[in-house]
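Project outcomes to date are best conveyed with an example. Our students and postdoctoral researchers have been running inverse folding experiments weekly, and each run begins with a structure described purely in tokens. The record below, which covers 373 residues, was selected by the lab manager from last quarter's runs and is presented without edits.
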């Protein structure tokens, strides 16, 4: 009986190996992995030189690792087992309560201090330029009750206090922390992505508009459309699993609003604040202003036609459609990709108002504001 059982195990194992091998050969190779957000290895060059040098076998192993059949399902199964074992942290993310995947936060005062120093130096040089900064805490701070018990996440409150204590006193600070904390039981952060939702962004817009003395457009002035629960964001991609619930992306339109977005870094434009074709791809958050770009220009039929500059990270993408109903000419700069001089752009366009929109993790991750000039 035992011998027959062993033979069955061996035959099953061989059949499994054969299935994997034949399936990987038959199924068409993939060029790109949405989950991993990268180009996959293709079949290597089987030249005599590569075979003799051993490069062919190395490339072939990488190719098989990328193209193995059902790879995404194996990864999900592994992560399912990790979660069922009780592990709550992997690849820089926490598996939180109620289906939330929350990005870790590490406080780096040296990096934050440098970014604040660069901003202050800019203000010192351009005393007559009006600067307002919207500072945004992330889910790791606002949704603390969703985190696993006793998880070692640095306190963003310390970072927010540093900003308030050290930012030039002539720069307005719009801190949306309190508004987000009041709404923490609402859908203000995605469960599978590190960004805030449209509603979270609206709270940020409201806070910023009030600080700037602008008319705050009420939500009743907009038409909203949900794109369905099919968005699995960047945090899900770090540990894909079968437990995750898809997020909902919301697009909206102000009644009577007219808009044009020029993607100046790529030389194209469209008469919409939403690149709706991106609802069909994995990263549906890029429906807002087509994701990351070095420099874009948003024009609208808003009454204030004086140009302004917004220096931002990707949290601003879902907020800017609201701000475009207050300002009719907005230049949007992303310091991660814009390598020209912001001050030269400001002088060329005769801009007297600058708005900084950043989440606190952006400010404490890298010295992006060294590119401010």
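After processing, the design step wrote out the following sequence:
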């Amino acid at each position: 009986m035992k011998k027959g059982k062993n033979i069955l195990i061996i035959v099953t194992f061989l059949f499994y190996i054969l299935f994997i091998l034949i399936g990987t050969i038959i199924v068409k190779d993939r060029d790109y992995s949405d989950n991993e957000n990268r180009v996959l290895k293709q079949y290597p060059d089987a030249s005599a030189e590569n075979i003799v040098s051993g490069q062919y076998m190395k490339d072939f192993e990488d190719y098989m690792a990328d193209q193995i059949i059902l790879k995404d399902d194996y990864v999900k199964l592994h992560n399912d087992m990790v979660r069922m074992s009780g592990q709550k942290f992997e690849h820089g993310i926490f598996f939180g309560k109620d289906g939330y995947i929350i990005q870790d936060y590490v406080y780096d005062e040296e990096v934050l201090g440098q970014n604040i120093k660069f901003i202050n130096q800019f203000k010192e040089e351009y005393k007559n330029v009006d600067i307002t900064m919207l500072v945004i805490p992330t889910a790791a701070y606002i949704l603390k009750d969703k985190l696993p018990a006793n998880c070692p996440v640095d306190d963003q409150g310390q970072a927010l206090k540093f900003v308030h204590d050290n930012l030039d006193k002539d720069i307005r600070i719009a801190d949306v922390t309190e508004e987000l904390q009041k709404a923490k039981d609402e859908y203000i952060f995605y469960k599978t992505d590190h960004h805030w939702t449209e509603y979270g962004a609206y709270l940020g817009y409201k806070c910023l508009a009030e600080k700037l003395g602008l008319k705050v457009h009420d939500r009743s002035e907009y038409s909203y459309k949900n794109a369905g629960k099919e968005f699995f964001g960047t945090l899900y991609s770090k540990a894909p699993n079968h437990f995750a619930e898809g997020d909902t992306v919301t697009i909206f339109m102000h009644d009577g609003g007219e808009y044009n977005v020029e993607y100046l870094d790529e030389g194209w434009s469209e008469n919409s604040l939403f690149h709706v074709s991106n609802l069909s791809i994995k990263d549906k958050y890029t429906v807002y202003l087509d994701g990351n770009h070095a420099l874009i220009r948003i024009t609208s039929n808003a009454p204030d036609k004086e140009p302004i500059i917004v220096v931002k990270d990707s949290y601003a993408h879902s907020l800017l459609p609201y701000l475009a109903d207050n300002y009719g000419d907005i230049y949007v700069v992303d310091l991660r990709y814009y390598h020209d001089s912001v001050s030269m752009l400001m002088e060329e366009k005769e801009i007297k108002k600058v708005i900084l929109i950043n989440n606190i993790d952006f400010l404490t991750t890298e010295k992006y504001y060294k590119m401010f000039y």
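The chain is about 35% helix and 20% strand. The chain has two domains: 2-69, 104-371. The training component of this project remains on track.
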